[in-house]
Give the backbone structure.
Amino acid sequence: MESNQSGGRNVAVKMESVEAPYVAPIHSTQFLESIPQSDIQIQEHHKKGSPGNHFIESNQPRTDLISVLLVDDHALMREGLRQLLELEQDLKVVGEAVDGFDALDKIRQLHPNIVLMDISMPMIDGLAVTRQVTHEFPDIAVLMLTMYRQGAQMLQAMRNGARGYLLKSASSREVAQAIRTVYEGGMLIEPGLTGAIVSEFRRLSDSTSANSSMNALSEKEVEIIRYVATGMSNKEIAEKLAYSEKTVKNYLSIIFQKLGMRDRTQVAIFALKQGLIPDQEL
């Protein structure tokens, strides 16, 4: 209230303050909820050197949407996935495919960021489609969503270029997070199937070790290993090769050392694993 004289009279003038639009930082979540939405104008401000002054424009469209193509031969599954994923602000379902050929057509048309792929489908299965997609579009990430728990299916999918493997029993939150993970360049495996990865790693490691050992053996050493695996004694091997028994023993000592083995039984097992024994001698 301000008093002013006009013509000898005191005139009361009511000064009404004009409030500026309300600007609130992101972290004031509880406070924002208590204010009517019509009174709030959220803007983006960032002053250099002031990391805390971050604001968002409420009506500004998002530019970091992750586009997703759904590939599954069951309509109910596709519809359910679409409804769940569209609840996520950063995910956008751009299309659906009902089989492998349809999937390849849609991928070429839409070029999505992520393909959410089933395995069992008519015409061409998801494993074959995944191999084609990763070859033709290496920038598109394929995330398998299937009911197959077998380690063999999962390993084949990963060999074909899949970036993740989830079971259909996963929650919508887990699926959404998996999509974000592979989109950002990561990989994701269903926790219950990680044992298959470990087993495959061990198998490959054993195979690599065995191949290295084979490369270290001479042709004559391999021949002696074959004879040992068929049950021949040192004397029989010596007669077969026209060597002395001492020479055969020396060969066996070198073989044990190269293979890191202690006895003839281990050498025989090695020969079986490497296929060194002819079928007629088994």
